[in-house]
Structure formats: C-alpha cells, structure tokens
Amino acid sequence: MVALDMTTDTVPGDAAVAQHKMTTRNVNVYYGAKQAIKDVSIDIDMDNVTAFIGPSGCGKSTFLRTLNRMNDTVASARVTGEITLDGEDIYASSMDVVQLRARVGMVFQKPNPFPKSIYDNIAYGPRIHGLATSKADLDVIVESSLRRAGLWDEVKDRLRDSGTALSGGQQQRLCIGRAIAVEPEVILMDEPCSALDPIATAKIEELIHALRGRYAIVIVTHNMQQAARVSQRTAFFHLGDLVEYGVTTDIFTNPREERTKDYITGRYG
Amino acid sequence: MTEPASAIAIATNMERKPTDWSASSKMRQRLASRNRTEKMFQFTGLAAVVLAVFFLAFLLWSMLADGVHGLSWQFLTGTDSSDPETVGIWGALKGSLLTMAVTLGLSFPIGVLTALYLEEFAPRNMWTDIVEVSINNLAAVPSIIFGLLGLAVFLNFMHLPRSAPVVGGLTLALMTMPVIVIAGRNAIKSVPPSIRDAARGIGASPVQVVFHHVLPLALPGIMTGTIIGMARALGETAPLLMIGMRAFIPTPPSSFTEPATVLPVQIFLWSDEISQGFVEKTSAAIIVLLAVLMTMNSIAIILRNRFEQKW
Membrane-crossing residues (chain B) (predicted)? Predict the structure, then answer.
C-alpha cells in the first residue's frame, strides 16, 4: 500500500497527472499563538472534486481559506509553507491577491448574494474584471453562468428581481453562478449546503457533478455522506493535522488511519 | 474528568418534587404579584409618555397662539428691521441656508471618509484607539467651545470675514463632523461581513468592496445621521454668537462672505427687543425654525424606513 508520505504520488495509480492545479507544502496557519493548521501538504487536481472532512474546529475551513488568501483579512492570521497555483507561489509578493481570488473563486457557508438584482449579482464579477466588452457580451455571460449554475429556467423571467428574494437553495446556486461568471480555475466551497434543506442540497450536489472537470473544486463539508457522494478525493483533518488524504472510496471503505476509521464510523465528530 | 462533569453528575442525582400549581400554592401567589408589577409598569410608562407629549403640545400651542398672526408673506420674504411691523425672516433663513451649505459641504465628505477609513482600512492599534476616543469626545464638547475655536482660528488667525456664513459654516462643520463619523461608523458596522467576503471572493479590490458594496448599503444610515447632525447645527446659537453672526443685518446675504445671521440667533435677538411687536415676531420665527427642523427630521425618518436593509 501507500506510505504515509502524502505529497509525492498522492494517490495510488494517479501518476498520470502531469501537473497539479494547486499544491500545498508544509503549510502551517497560526491565529496569534494558536496553531490552527499543522504542516499540511496536499495536491489538488483539475479533474477531481476534493472534499475536506473532519470534526468542527479541525481547521478544514481555515485551510480552505488559505487557498485564496481569504485569511489575509484576519489580522492575527499567519501562514507559513508554500501554496502554489499552476506552479506559482500564491503567497509571493508578486502575486496579486485580487487576481488570485478571480482565479480561485469561493462559495460560502451561508448564501450571501448581494442585495442587488439577480442579473447584477452575476454581472458584478465580469464587470470589475472587464470580461465583457458590450452589454450583449454581458448578457451572454449572465445567461451561460446561470445555466451552468442550474438556475436559468427558474429566474430567466425575473432577472431584475433582487437576489435576496430567492429561496436559500436558489441563493446558493446564484452564488455559485456568481463565482463561475468570472471563469475561475478553482472553486472553493465552504460547507455550501449546511444552511440548505435536503432537496436544495441535492441540487447543489448535482451541480457539483456537472461542474467537475471544468473547474477544480474543493468542498469543505460536515456531512460525510456528501463527501462520499460528490468527491473523488477526500482529506480528513483532525485538530489541525491532515490525518489522511486519498481516493474517496478508499477513505470511506478502507481507511489507513485509526482516527479516520473512528470518525467515519461515527465514534466522534 | 474535570470538576464540572462531576458536578453535573451530582445535580442529576438530586431528587426534585414536581411543582405545585394548585390555586392556593406559592406559585399562584407569585404570579399574582408579577401581574401587579406588569400593570404598574405599564401605567408608569403611560404617565411618562403623557407628560412628555403634554409639554411638547403646550410648547407648540403657545408658539402657534402667539406667532401664527405674525406669519405673512411679508414676514417670510422680509429681512430684519428696527420696526416690528416690517420685520421679516428671509434674511436669517437665507443666512441659515448658506451656513448649512458650507457645513454640509465640509462635514459630510470628511465625516464619511473618516468613518470609512477607520472602519474598513485603518489597522487596529493604539493610534486608531486614540483617534476613536478623540472623535467620541469631540461629539460631546459643548458648542460654545467650538465658537471660541472658530473665533481664534478662522477670525483671528486666518482673518476670514467676521459674521459671514462661511465662518459660521466652518465652525458648525467642526461640530457636526464627529456626529457624522459616529453615525457613519455605526452604519458601516451594520453591513454584514458576508457581503464583504462575497465581493472579495470574486476578486474585488478593497476600494471596490467599499465603494460598490459597503458604502451604498451604509448610505441610508449615514444620511440619517447626517440630517440629524445638520438639524442640530441648524438650531445652534452659541458658537455663532462668538464669531459675530449676531449683527443687525437689514439685507439678506448674497454670498458666503457677506455678513449674515441665522434663524436661532435671529430669535435670540428679537426676544431681547423691548418693543411689544417683537413678541409675536419671535414666536413666528420659532414656528419657521421648528417647521424647517421637523421637515429635516421627517426626511431622516423617511430615508431610514425606505432604504433600511433587513438582514
């Protein structure tokens, strides 16, 4: 089987992947004196959905937020180690954080549409990044983004209505549409279904399936069944450690680590 | 395990009798005394409201009774005069408008930018704490002190024209600015962080986050605070006496640098007149001032109700 070294040859039989979309090497995250993430090395690939699972406070969301430098806004947060996107160090001084976040989009736990129209929610990103040269261009971007977010048929007749008037599940799909409107390469999802009912959750999961391959998707989830359903790679975090990372089916059927097994089988969490 | 765990174990082992809810029980007596307290509080509250409304109504009624006959087209369009028959309020009203224009033009942009910087950009350290405390203190400084400051800085040091709306406006801007900063910061704080995250998450720069999202959402709150601050400045007398806006002005000011007076100072001056005819005119001027103030406050309330975001 595989050695404990999770950095090289991350997953058995995965050697064909020439270059990883994102890599992290020996990443530590501190909030003041408290260490939230300990020496985490992980690779994220384009054609996989990667799930981060683990009990509350294990650092999975913190780690996710280092991948697009959202932790920069937390004054006490400090990150060491190396994180790359297409081989470029994202914490290097030459990396423009605004551009990074256009390339690594994010969907949050609680749906957070702007209190603007559905159209303007989607169009905001393309507008600030100058992705559309004309109004017609922008219309195309809005329609295609809403279609890919699986929301077009529900909202096409009321694009001028406020995004906040939609239901929770629709709002979250609007937020996914808003993220993909700027054509990011990676989409980070921080427990995107935790505020949604099972039907809305199922729709988001379908959507993740549909988006797989076009974007590298990383999803943090509390729900192990969800991780099993949507992801091809799973990373299990516990108390800031990356305990185990591998092919999802292996993690769930044949975990190498005792702690993973205990968590999967519901001994704690 | 630790102490609390064992304490919980003991607590669950303790036996408790079921609560007695029969008619003669202690619980029923307690309920009766609670209901009495409720009634007493409601009555006291109502009495307080009646008292407050009574004095407001009395003030309005006495002003209207004294002053309503003094209101006429000639009064609304005329200027100050030594004869109560021909006296008018327009000069003072125009002086107030010019002064307020200067105050708003200075205190609004400076106040809003200060609030935005302190909330969204400034690092949290000792210096920003000092600035914050200073601004809060500035808002509590008696207005006469601002008058002295205006006299010392704008007249004696900068040699700006005495009695002019520009100096009055500058002085009142100093007074209004901290009010706008405080109202602005509160409005900015009430914009949920998730909106900032959303904008940052799709690659908006910090300035774009602020000007595309935070400021538009905070603006109704900022404007409400601004109008209330302006209403306070409009009713201010003391600091303007210090900078000479108490002169007898028989022609309305036609520019920011010409001598002028303002509504509350005009009321103060007329109330000092010996001639009986000025009693009515003073009340009439108060009616005009109250009408302007109530209009401003109504606008503030309408803005608040109309644009307030529910999160």
Answer: 40-64, 97-118, 138-160, 166-188, 209-231, 284-303
Q: Name which of B202, B209, B211, B219 to mutate to probe chain A: the one with the most chain A Cβ atoms within 10 A of its Cβ.
A: B202
Q: What is the mean pLDDT of chain A?
A: 88
In this structure, the answer to whether residues B62 and B83 fall within a common structural domain is no
* Closest to B272 (Cα-Cα) out of B239, B293, B241: B241
Query: Cβ(A77)–Cβ(A29) under 8 Å?
Result: yes
Would the CB atoms of B203 and A101 count as touching at under 8 Å?
yes
**Per-residue pLDDT, B250:** 85
Residues of A in contact with B200 (CB under 8 A): 70, 73, 101
ipTM of the shown complex = 0.85
CATH code, B237: 1.10.3720.10
Tens digit of each residue's pLDDT (9 = 90 or more) over A78-117: 999 999 999 899 999 888 999 999 999 999 999 999 999 9
> Which residues of chain A have a Cβ shorter than 8 Å from any chain B Cβ?
68, 70, 73, 75, 98-102, 105-108, 110, 112-115, 124-125, 128-129, 175, 178-179, 181-182
B259 and B153 assigned to the same domain: yes
Domain boundary among B70, B90, B125: B70
- A244 CB contacts (<8 Å, ≥6 apart)? A6, A235, A236, A251, A255, A256, A257, A259, A260
**Angstroms from A195 CA to nearest CA on chain B:** 14
B130 and B199 share one domain: yes
With respect to residue B1, please indicate whether it lies within any of the assigned structural domains: no
Contact B203 A99 (CB under 8 A): yes
Higher pLDDT, A234 or B300: A234
Give the C-alpha separation, A180 to B82, whole Å. 74
Indicate yes or no: CB of B203 within 8 angstroms of CB of A98: yes
Residue A8 — pLDDT band, cuts 50, 70, 90?
very low
CATH of domain A19-264: 3.40.50.300
| Measured distance CA(A186)–CA(B201) in Å, rounded | 12
Residue spans of the domains in chain A: they are 19-264
Is B49 in the same domain as B160? no
Buried-state track A190-212, b at ≥16 Cβ within 10 A, e below 16: bbbbebbeeebbebbbebbeebb
CB pairs below 8 Å between A and B: how many? 63
Do the chains contact at B203 and A110, CB–CB below 8 Å? no
Look at strands A216-220 and A186-190 and give their pairing: parallel
Residue B22 confidence class, pLDDT cut points 50, 70, 90: confident
Domain residues for B54? Answer: 38-70
